[in-house]
Amino acid sequence: MRLHAFLPSPRVLGIMALKTHLGLDFEVQTLDLSQGGQRTRGYLAKNPNGKMPTLEDVAFTLWESNAILVYLAARSPQSGLWPSDLARQADVLRWLFWQSAHWDAESWGMVVFEKMSKAVLSLGPPDAAFIARGEQNFARFAAVLDRSLNGRTWLTGETLTVADFSVGALLPSAARIGLSIDPYPDIGLWYARLAALPSWQFALAQQESALAAWQAEHQAGTMI
Ligand SMILES: N[C@@H](CCC(=O)N[C@@H](CS)C(=O)NCC(=O)O)C(=O)O
């Protein structure tokens, strides 16, 4: 398998942590978004959205980071990261869809696009109105996450799943762009558990060093 990824991206952090957690072996093909690697004809044939990450398996190509998390975890059923029980699978899916629609696109994604992605992709200055909307949404959905985590070890109960990898992956970057989880104590406790996993620490260190290297190369002052 081969993962096409811009390693500084938080949407890749969860996948890289899962890779280490499950002891998976796949090659990482680096894609520098600022150089337009996502818009080449060859890459668009793999991912017509012109976005990363994209996973290539023997006869199958998959895009969307949450779909990739499920695909990888379901190959290791003994890990429990993708549960076998139907209701628990639906619960994990609920959080993956929530992450994609609300936590990412409507909240963190809106702020990071304005504060960082526009600079990486040369799309002009940030729009303060979009940042304000993203910040409002972050507060709304962080409160939902905080209440949902109350009394739980992991997002869907007592067992770690890919939902934790997906939702948690945006938090280090959220802190860097001013989206604080300080007002949400249960998010803080849950994220501390996630951040204590050796696989998470390894992937986060890898992401941070990829980000530092990219910033040094491009003399970029902004942070993902
Ligand atoms: N919902 C998608 C979002 C993917 C996405 O937006 N990727 C961004 C960077 S983190 C990208 O590749 N942007 C490049 C572009 O739009 O040109 C996922 O989770 O995989």
Automatic annotation (TrEMBL):
<dbReference type="Pfam" id="PF00043">
    <property type="entry name" value="GST_C"/>
</dbReference>
<dbReference type="InterPro" id="IPR004045">
    <property type="entry name" value="Glutathione_S-Trfase_N"/>
</dbReference>
<dbReference type="InterPro" id="IPR004046">
    <property type="entry name" value="GST_C"/>
</dbReference>
<protein>
    <submittedName>
        <fullName>Glutathione S-transferase</fullName>
        <ecNumber>2.5.1.18</ecNumber>
    </submittedName>
</protein>
<dbReference type="InterPro" id="IPR036249">
    <property type="entry name" value="Thioredoxin-like_sf"/>
</dbReference>
<dbReference type="InterPro" id="IPR036282">
    <property type="entry name" value="Glutathione-S-Trfase_C_sf"/>
</dbReference>
<dbReference type="InterPro" id="IPR010987">
    <property type="entry name" value="Glutathione-S-Trfase_C-like"/>
</dbReference>
<keyword id="KW-0808">Transferase</keyword>
<dbReference type="InterPro" id="IPR040079">
    <property type="entry name" value="Glutathione_S-Trfase"/>
</dbReference>
<feature type="domain" description="GST N-terminal">
    <location>
        <begin position="1"/>
        <end position="80"/>
    </location>
</feature>
<feature type="domain" description="GST C-terminal">
    <location>
        <begin position="85"/>
        <end position="211"/>
    </location>
</feature>
<dbReference type="Pfam" id="PF02798">
    <property type="entry name" value="GST_N"/>
</dbReference>
<dbReference type="GO" id="GO:0004364">
    <property type="term" value="F:glutathione transferase activity"/>
</dbReference>
<comment type="similarity">
    <text>Belongs to the GST superfamily.</text>
</comment>
